[in-house]
Amino acid sequence: xxxxxxxxxxxxxxxxxxxxxxxxxxxxxxxxxxxxxxxxxxxxxxxxxxxxxxxxxxxxxxxxxxxxxxxxxxxxxxxxxxxxxxxxxxxxxxxxxxxxxxxxxxxxxxxxxxxxxxx
Length: 119
What we know:
With about 120 residues, the chain is mainly alpha-helical. It is about 55% helix and about 0% strand.
């Protein structure tokens, strides 16, 4: 019983550590904040032109990565629970954070190349 509890705690600690920094995160699930939901809901028929600001650790890079992983505005909207989004434009990551781990940088580059080839 104690071993099972220790194993569960270790697994939880590992998962939490993976989610601490966006630069190393390789997760597809994320917390949808009210402001993010409102941004997507407001832009069901047109694309946003936004500047995102926030303090370190507020989720800017993590949100960017989640957008990249979903590759289109419509898929990103679905991932946040917003339905009836008409715009199905590709998301092309052009600039990335210099703090991304190499594996995450490679993923973003592969996504960019895939999107560019598809367009």
